[in-house]
Write a structure and sequence with these properties.
Length: 424
Amino acid sequence: MTTGAFITEQDTRVFLRELDRRYPLIERGKGVWLYDAAGTSYLDAIGGGAMVASLGHGVPELVEAARAQAEKVSFLYNQQFTSPAQERLADELTGLAPEGFTRVHFVSGGSEANETAVRLARSYHVERGDADRWRIVSPAQAYHGPTAVTLSLTGRPALHHHYTPYLTEHLHIPPSTKRFDPTGQEALEALDLALEAAGPGTVSAFFCEPVSAASLPAYSPPAAFWEGLATRRDQHGFLICLDEVVTGMGRTGSWFAAEGLPFVPDVITTAKGLGAGFAPVGAVLCREEVYGAVAEGSRAFELGHTWDGAPLSCAVGLAVVRYLREHRLIERVQEAGPRLHRALDGALADCELVSEVRGRGFLSRGGSTWKHWKEGCSSTRPSPRPTGTRVTRRCSRRRSRAPTRSSTSSSSACARRCAQWSAK
Ligand SMILES: Cc1ncc(COP(=O)(O)O)c(C=O)c1O
């Protein structure tokens, strides 16, 4: 290993994620700063690169919580044991979740949480004698993780890389962005078509982020979409699972972003901010009714990961909750979020490339014209059957509604961008 400030493929035995990238060799972090081996400081404005270190680096209270727990007992397998840390964190999270959420299953990260949520939704139906339900519907432009099940939940073929043979064909609908579907009506129509084509009795859950993180940053559907979704849940009997891997634990100005929605979901997953970068920990929370299906059925939710609910991870999760409370961070995000939004709005008002500033709390973002093109096109990329035909038709319709502001406005330019997007 070199002791220089950067690591390249030549310097390392690590199987790098991107072989042509130079990686800063970070030795330590404090607050929002990271320091490399040569003493250069980097402003870490994105939580360690993945919206995880939301409380900053080197937080003494979290370090101490991890140390103290490791001294007592660091690991226990939760098929045989539980611990005060796991019990207390479960109490805390159910207290912070929306009304009616009574149970938590701990895991180590976001993908594990989402994959567990998919299994839980399936178990709910099977336990109630509804074994035909397995399909998931999700917005196409989403990211729920890189494991086989979670990767199947995105409708962006570019993200599937060469792993398609391992992926299951779930159903995708376009997101209802402000530009192309401001009322959410088209997305609801797409949902209806997907349900109809698949057979509503085969659909287990609708899976989405309340406010998108990486794949359509800071985007949230309009209220009418959420209301329509909840109505269809009541009609058709699927569950609504919210991926709050990024939005959970305060980022949007509430403990869970579900709080701002006009319905109560059935399952919520959370991860990144729960360990805040001091321990890998995630959680799947569910309503009593979902738990009740298992409790009154087989009485077992089989399969688990070795580190599920380990005392060390849960103790860090508890310390994070305590820290958020003691420093009033949720309230402070609530107060500062609109200011951030207004500041971005003002600063970007004259920027031709930016057509809107969107988001909630500290999950804000200026959407560019180009970005809108990507949204419009990518959301209409052919998705797994049976919604593919419909989706392709929408794409050509949207192209004909292209803005005329710049050279990107021609339909051929749109088609080009679609091709570029899918190649990514
Ligand atoms: C919304 C969302 N869900 C799930 C995941 C996957 O989480 P993990 O990388 O912890 O498995 C991510 C990761 O970026 C994410 O942003």
